[in-house]
Model the fold of this input.
Amino acid sequence: AQSVTQPDIHITVSEGASLELRCNYSYGATPYLFWYVQSPGQGLQLLLKYFSGDTLVQGIKGFEAEFKRSQSSFNLRKPSVHWSDAAEYFCAVVGGLTGGGNKLTFGTGTQLKVEL
Amino acid sequence: EPEVTQTPSHQVTQMGQEVILRCVPISNHLYFYWYRQILGQKVEFLVSFYNNEISEKSEIFDDQFSVERPDGSNFTLKIRSTKLEDSAMYFCASSERGQNEKLFFGSGTQLSVL
Done:
């Protein structure tokens, strides 16, 4: 069965600093990978996704992620963090489909705190 | 951007009571989902729904749970007899198409079972 690991539960960075959130997946076939962000009181918003092709994908809000098959990783990056980026970030993989639709398997999430 | 809306945002209920969580998916979407997140744990898939029937469900989605699309706009999750361990944030989501499509999530309903 597919699984997603986010090894960092909490990360604190200073505003303007670079950010990398780690995600490792386990999936037997080519994975379809997502990063979602959850701000307080909000739903899950899709930042970016990887299906195939270019392994470096660009998302909204200046985020990017790189798919590395050899490392089974899909790390999220941002060159300069803004205070409004403080939120919880979830990595997810699609898998286990039997009846169509999207069954997402989520990681445990990384809580990002931004210091001013 | 279109939104999935969920009501209520918070629901408090007594153990053993029935609750209905409501969702209005995006109007042209065809696939509907419920996920939940117990405090401190992962977001977990509960069920997916397409063409007026359940297309897939997880082990969590036992006989106490049911989903319904009673009209053309609402999508509901019913828990017949709530247990303490049902306390969680419940997210509704929808997608325009099926496999590997972008899911749009609602802001969730926080269910507290006392």
